[in-house]
Amino acid sequence: MDELNELRKRNFNDGENVTNKEEAQQQKKNNENENKDLKIIIISSILGFLFGFILEKSKVYEPKFIRQQMIFNKFLMMKMFFSALATSSLSIFILNLIAKERYNKVFESYRTMLKSKSILIVCAGGLILGLGMTIGGSCPGMVFVQLGAGVNYSYLTLVGGLLAGLFHGLLNSYLTASSKPDAVTSKTLFELIKVNAIIVRILFIVLLAAGVALMEIFVPWKKDYSFRDNTRPFFSVTSEVWQPIIGGCCLGSLQFFSLLLLSKSLGSSSSFTTAVSLIFPFKILEKFPYLKKFRFGLNNYLSLLFVLSVFGGSMASSFLGGVFNKAQPVHPYNAVLGGFLLVFGARLAGGCNTGHGISGTSHLFIGSIVAMMSMFASGILLGFFARTNDFFF
What we know:
Radius of gyration: 24 Å
Number of helices: 18
Order of helices and strands: HHHHHHHHHHHHHHHHHH
Shape: globular
Strand content: under 5%
Oligomer: single chain
Largest sheet: none
Number of strands: 0
Mean pLDDT: 89
Structural class: mainly alpha
């Protein structure tokens, strides 16, 4: 009997030891996941802060420069955009060499998003976004830069954007059902023309660099910008403005760290959808699956954290540069309407000026290239129409 009791006791202790070991392993795993999530949160915050800081320093957030670009009176925005796109493309080229497996995960994730889109929807979204850019003098990600820099009525642009996020989220199932996905949308330029990806990427970077150089040669950046304070240093955290090409290169380099450290492309328009999804009770969200998928998950919350950090970076930069609340605003009506159009267009297309314009185009996806070209096409056309008819300039 004593031997039997001893055996039972031993078995019980063995089972308890196994349970304790499993619990310890699970606790270790949970701690590792928490540490990983914390690192991701910190990195996202830093990237967002730098994103806002750089955009503010480059002054492309000012509504007048966005509008003036559309009628080719100022080239600060285009110089920065081309520089950022070239540097982002170079970042992707390097990552393909040093971390190909990690980059491919991001690449295929972006392709999956585009597979649900048609060229018609992407083009329509880009056209609407472009109209919003010219009317509101902003972009989805730029809204938070303007808020941080104290641009008057930028909060109305945010309100318009949130309304657009809500409107698109509620009607998404009807909007997507109206157009069937196209295979070409998720193809890349090098796949379409059947040329080696390395050659296409190098040529693309060279063409962008040449375009930036030509713009700077014919229109030096200091002719486009009127300094408010000439005594500040040229390139420091207390500078009033940075040379737009330097700013663009700094912005584009953030793509490298986002892809390498977060396995994620830069983008900001999804934050509007995440924000509006939080106002609904979960039971109501069951009726709107598109909004529901933006309600939970670290990646969704990171998009909010990113734009909040953009706001903080822009505010810090504007105060350090002595230009807080100095930018000329648009009319309140234009701010609301522009905010609605640019965010609705971005959500319809599946990306904004950063998402499609820099990230997707750097990946060389056809859908992103079409969206980017559509943005500028409609913005330029409306810009010249408005200039001719004295509509809002």
